[in-house]
Amino acid sequence: MPVTAYPGLVTFIADKAEVPVEEIDPEKTLEDLALDSLALIEVALFIRREYGVDVPDGDLVLSQKLSEWAAYLDERVGR
To answer: Could you write out the DSSP letters of every residue in 6-66?
Structure first.
C-alpha cells in the first residue's frame, strides 16, 4: 500500500524540527529529530485539522518511525 499521507506529514514535521524536508528520512523518529512530547501533540492536532482524524492518546509515540505514522494515518483515512 503506497503511503500517501507522508508528504504532508513530513512537511509539517520538517517545519517543527526546523530542518529541510529533503533531510527527513522516513526511518527517522520524532526523537531522532530532537522533537518532544509537545511536538507529538502538535502533530496530532495537525492530523486532526488536515485529515479529520482524531489520534487517541497512545496511538502514536515519539519512538515510531515517520513511515509508521504515515501508514497509520493512511489506514485511518481509508486511503
So the answer is: HHHHHHHHHHHHTS-GGG--TT-BTTTTT--HHHHHHHHHHHHHHH-----TTSS-TTSBH
